[in-house]
Amino acid sequence: MSIALQGAKPAREIREVTAWDRLKVNKNWLGAWFMLPAAAFLILFLAYPLGLGVWLSFTDARLGREGVFVGLENYDFLRDDPVFWLSVFNTILYTTVASIIKFAIGLYLALLLNENMPFKAIIRAVVLIPFIVPTVLSAIAFWWLFDPQFSIISWSLKKMGLITQNIDFLGDVWNARWSVIFANIWRGVPFVAITLLAGLQTVSPSLYEAATIDGASPWQRFRFITYPLLTPIIAVVMTFSVLFTFTDFQLIWVMTRGGPVNATHLMATFSYQRAIMSGYLGEGAAIATAMIPFLLAAIMVSWFGLQRRKWQQGADND
Amino acid sequence: MTDLTRRTLVKGATAFGAISALSGPALLDWAKAWAQNAPWKPEKGAKLSMLRWKYFVQAEDDAFVKLIDAFTKATGVPVEISRESYEDVQPKASVAANTGTGPDLFWGLYSLPHLFPQKCLDMTDVADYLGKAHGGWVDSAVKYGKSGNKWIAIPICYSGALINWRVEASKKAGWSQFPTKTDEFLEYAKAMKAQGTPGGFALGHASGDGNTWIHWCLWAQGGQVVDKNDKVTINSPETVKALDYAKALYGHMIPGVASWNDASNNKAFLAKEIFWTNNGISIYVAAQNSAKDIAEDMNHAYFPVGPVGKPTELHLMYPILAMTYTKNPQACKALIAFMLDAQNFNPWIQAAKGYLTHCLNEYDANPIWTSDPKNTPYRDVAKRSLTAGGLGSVGEKAATAIADFVVLDMFANYCTGREDAKGAIAGAERQLKRIYR
């Protein structure tokens, strides 16, 4: 038998393995191809407009006319523009106050909704309503609520005899700021609440049982079980919340258009005002570009501040 | 009827008092005769598209559509019309001018054509034709329409911004007529507020109502944004005087005007919250439909005259332009001329109920201006209006300064006490210098 086998089939010719051969079976190479459509989308619809915006901020482009490169001139002008700094102040105030309150109310609501109660599903759905209503619609509703002449709030207080004159909600600088912040909170709370609720439901009840047996108070249970286990979701939800608030446009535009006397201009509305309304595309782009560092900082804080565990940052679990 | 020429028709119409509103088949016959005699013959297979500002009075748009239909039937040129809020026409036109594609015709606000004069079709022949046929153009229209020696747009109409006031309440305060001088106006506002019937002007970012009264106020005291060479002259004692005047007036207004937009004063007036304001005729039109008591008790008046001694009003101009990229320039010109010729224009401005004011003198005779004496002040707004930018050029810079609310914010900053006069003026000056460099 062994003799018969000998030389029965000539062994297949052995050739060098080429780089191409290696590449053909390389998983990463294939992976790169699969990534390509996604990358194309990102570049076309995200990176390109962002890059174009940054480029525009270095030109003196006007609406309907291409500009030439002017270096940092737009930024130079903005540096001495009190309205720009006012809009920065407004944006930071708006974002900070609204985000903190949204978080507080959202967490409170989430904890409430996490309890067992009758009509749980319906109540949870109802909480979402402010988030479902189109922003423009709710903005118009608030605009009426805060109207200097027809505000139902002023009307009710007057009927109750608490005030004698309508409250000037949107005409007074600070009133206007608190009014738009209030509207933003109203809109943003459901998002925070429902997302945190989802997080709460992933916490295993056995942990609470164990803690209860150990004699932990409700506050201790929240502080040492709920909160630590919730931090990843808090990080995500607050990042989004801060980003949405920081870049808010519709609420402000519908309610005040940045008025009175620019007291509610956010960087986003101010950028639109300068770029589209007045036609200074370059300057508007510069204002928009100036938002990027703030946004990056906000992301950094929540991701590196709140996500202390390694797996949350993409490493293996510790 | 088909053998009628335009001339005989015009003569006939004049004999009937110039304004027999043709409709149905009569309008079509007239349109056909017009098309035969018009100096512009639309290109073969021509199609037009137009972007116009969105109407405020429905009847105006209905009449507009009717005349466009007549044009299409008479010339065979279909016209596609799209409508945008009047603030949004400008950005779209700018982009179209830049990219060389888009609607053939744009009908927008203020000095739109001056943003890109080299992209506008030369309309000199149309302007001459219309001017000759209809009693000539008013001065402000010439300024808005011309760039150098060339007409780059046809000023279709103005929308007047005048005082709307309640008669009975004013009488009670001791004024049977609306004050004609700025000092008296201050007294009037004070008396009106004292008896609980205040008024108000918008100090928020209201493109129409805010800008018109603010510029009146500035000019009435002799202030100017720029001189006639476009040099920024806002930093002047006259501006300070205007600011002080506005602040005094603001003190006599209903609280809350700092947040008002273009719609706020309409609402407040119709709800009997305010008793004087500035507006187009739309409050009156709305009151006639839904609040007859207000309509009967209200009237219109010119803005009071200030120390400069002459009217200093700013009204909203609506010019139409054709882009040089259009494939059918003759059709564009024919359509514009058609719109402004008497048989079309008269019923049209009648349908607008006084909201639109003509720029061609002949139309002073339109019965809309005299059938109801309360309409009459709006007849003359084209003659009384100063142009955007005041003494300076009507152009991109003036348009930008208005769109960016530079002057409006200066007044609002001072009136609401956010800044002192010096600070408010300095802020405006800095921004204006950048716009006018």
Explain this structure.
- The complex is a heterodimer of chains A (318) and B (437).
- Chain A is mainly α and 318 residues long.
- Chain A has one domain (80-313): MetI-like fold, CATH 1.10.3720.10.
- Chain A has 15 helices and no strands.
- Chain A is flat and about 105 Å long.
- With 437 residues, chain B is an alpha/beta fold.
- Chain B folds into two domains: 25-30 and 40-156 and 323-370, 3-Layer(aba) Sandwich (D-Maltodextrin-Binding Protein, domain 2), CATH 3.40.190.10; 162-314 and 404-435, D-Maltodextrin-Binding Protein, domain 2, CATH 3.40.190.
- In chain B, 47% of the residues lie in helices and 12% in strands.
- Chain B has 21 helices and 13 strands.
- Chain B is globular.
- Mean pLDDT of chain B is 88; it is low at 1-21.
- The A-B interface holds A 62-66, 77, 80-83, 146-150, 165-166, 168-173, 176, 256-263, 273-274, 276-280 and B 87, 90-91, 93-98, 115-116, 203-205, 254-261, 264, 267-268, 271, 273-274, 396, 399-400, 403-404, 409, 412-413, 416, 418, 427, 430-431, 434.
How would you summarize this macromolecular structure in one to three sentences?
With 318 residues, chain A is mostly helical. Chain A is built from 15 helices and no strands. The termini of chain A are far apart.
Q: What is the beta-strand fraction of chain A?
A: under 5%
Number of strands of chain B: 13
Count of helix runs of chain A: 15
Q: DSSP strand (E) fraction of chain B?
A: 5-15%
Q: Kindly provide the radius of gyration of chain A, computed on alpha-carbon positions and rounded to a whole number of angstroms.
A: 28 Å
Mean pLDDT of chain A: 86
In total, the number of domains of chain A comes to: 1
- Helical proportion of chain A, percent range: 55-70%
Q: Do you know the CATH topology of the largest domain in chain B?
A: D-Maltodextrin-Binding Protein, domain 2
